Amino acid sequence: MSLDVSEDLLAKAETGDIGDADFVDCVKQSLPYAWQLISKVVADLKQGVAASTGSTRFADNTTPPPDEQARGQLLRVLASDSMRGALERHFGVKLAFQNCHRVAAFPPTEVDSDSYRKFISPRGQLLNQSPELRDC
């Protein structure tokens, strides 16, 4: 199970749509490692602690998760369209993902940039490989 859904939130969902705030809070409480990591990457971007390629700014994480539980949280949150989309709307960024741990946050205005296209390209994925990441 990806999320710990409270009885109240489940009842709300059964009777109609729920808002992003309730959903994002559920993600935050259920997947704390993923929440903390994405929050840090977004904070780095907004504070200017970002990689810069030409005129494009983005922030990313290159540190692997400390254990399989943390890795699983990150995979679940980024593999789910609804969770990933809610986090992107909440933080006002576009998230990009490689290798079960490398998460980057781009300003939405940079989605058409060379840096974004390089990050999400097959070449970018291949260049970000290493033997210690083989099992991720």
Briefly say what this structure is.
The protein is α+β, with helices and mostly antiparallel strands. It has helices at 7-15, 20-30, 32-46, 68-79, 81-91, 114-120, 122-127; strands spanning 51-53, 56-60, 94-98, 102-106.
General description of the model:
The chain is built from 7 helices and 4 strands. With about 140 residues, the protein is an alpha+beta fold. Strand 3 (about 95-100) and strand 4 (about 100-105) form a beta hairpin. The protein is globular and about 45 Å long. The two termini are about 20 Å apart. The mean pLDDT is about 85.
Task: Report the uncertain regions.
Answer: none
Write down the domain tally.
1
Sheet with most strands = 4 strands, antiparallel
First-last Cα distance? 19 Å
Radius of gyration: 16 Å
Discrete helix count: 7
Strand content: 5-15%
Q: Write down how many β-strands occur, each being a DSSP E stretch of 2 or more residues.
A: 4
Derived structural class: alpha+beta
